User: Which sequence fits this backbone?
């Protein structure tokens, strides 16, 4: 990981491209969120203040970083947890494509009961191919409860 202090006011173009094998960047500066969140597979975990401090365009990336922090035990995110969850609840549909990237985000989408049948089955196929039995079981239960499908005759572990 890499930590960007709050004193940073600008991230130059291409810095995220040089980040190599980083999985996440701890951002205390709001400008770092947009600078690093554009690289696929790199999560910008914003710890510089509440989500409302960020520009609207940077909030989805910060929410993705929040779920990454939850999944990987980065406790410093806790003071803003309610605000992140509220934003997620109001924009859950924007995160369907990200459900493949992290279990915490998938679990949140299931809890919110916002996955439609087509998306849930697509995710089920993805996690089946990946061999993630826990994610597959969670999705099967969701499909069974929400759509009446997902039982032994429909899918198997």
Assistant:
């Amino acid at each position: 990981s890499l930590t960007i202090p709050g004193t940073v006011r600008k991230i130059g173009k291409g810095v995220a491209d040089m980040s190599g094998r980083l999985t996440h960047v701890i951002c205390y500066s709001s400008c770092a969120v947009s600078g690093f969140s554009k690289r696929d597979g790199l999560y910008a975990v914003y710890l510089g203040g509440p989500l409302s401090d960020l520009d609207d365009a940077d909030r989805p990336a910060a929410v993705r970083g929040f779920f990454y922090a939850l999944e990987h035990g980065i406790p410093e995110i806790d003071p803003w947890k309610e605000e992140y969850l509220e934003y997620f609840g109001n924009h859950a549909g924007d995160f369907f494509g990200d459900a493949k990237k992290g279990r915490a985000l998938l679990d949140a989408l299931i809890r919110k009961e916002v996955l439609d049948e087509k998306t849930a089955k697509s995710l089920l196929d993805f996690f089946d191919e990946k061999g993630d039995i826990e994610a597959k079981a969670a999705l099967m239960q969701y499909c069974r409860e929400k759509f009446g499908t997902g039982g032994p005759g429909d899918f198997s572990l």
